[in-house]
Amino acid sequence: METLRDILDAAARGVFPSPDGRTTVVPQASERDAGVLAFTAHAVVFTDEDPQWVHDTLAAVPCDALAAPMNPRFLAALLDRTGRTAENVDAMLVGTPLPGEPPLPLKEIVDGDHPRIVYARGRRDDVRAWTTEGGVLVMGRGIAGRLEVSVEIEEGVRQRGLGRSLVTAARQLAAEPLWAQVAPGNARSMRAFLAAGYRPVGAEALLLGAP
Question: Which of 91, 168, 93 is nearest to 132 (CA)?
Answer without folding.
Answer: 168
